[in-house]
């Protein structure tokens, strides 16, 4: 295991996750204050601000379950976050890896806060593209939020980190 002093400290990564959580919660609070559930405000021909509630996970997975999913996804987010802290501590010199898992943790915890406060996740970013029509009704990609964006960024960076790691190994 690498020396823990050879990379950015754990507190830097936790602070970055905190910034993601704060940005996520501030934007959701603004949406809750300005929109009623179901409101849509077009910004461009392909982008709307909306207010949607998701009781499930990505793409409303398990949204129609009996309510147990709230606690399942809350617990899962907390357990995954604990594991991510352990991974960051175990790999302090791998900056891209630490950034990736930090984004995932910040996003997961941002949505955990919603589940604890509201019982659902507030989504508000909606994109529409004709090319999506065969997959999504009307070409509208499901609404999402800053936390979801951070998770997606983290997942992309994790894939990039693995590709780079494999290339370095050749």
Approximately how much beta-strand content do the residues carry? 5-15%
Please provide the ordered H/E string of secondary-structure elements: HEEHHEH
Instruction: Count helical runs.
Output: 4
Helix vs. strand class:
mainly alpha
The strand order across the widest sheet is: 1-2-3
Number of domains: 1
How does this structure look, described?
The chain is mostly helical. The chain has one domain. The chain has helices spanning 10-34, 68-90, 95-118, 146-169; strands at 40-42, 47-54, 121-127. Strands 1-2-3 form a three-stranded antiparallel beta sheet. A hairpin with a 4-residue loop joins strand 1 (40-42) and strand 2. Helix 2 packs antiparallel against helix 3 and helix 3 packs antiparallel against helix 4 (146-169). The longest helix has 25 residues, at 10-34. The radius of gyration is 18 Å and the shape is globular. The two termini are 21 Å apart. 28% of the residues are buried. The mean pLDDT is 89.
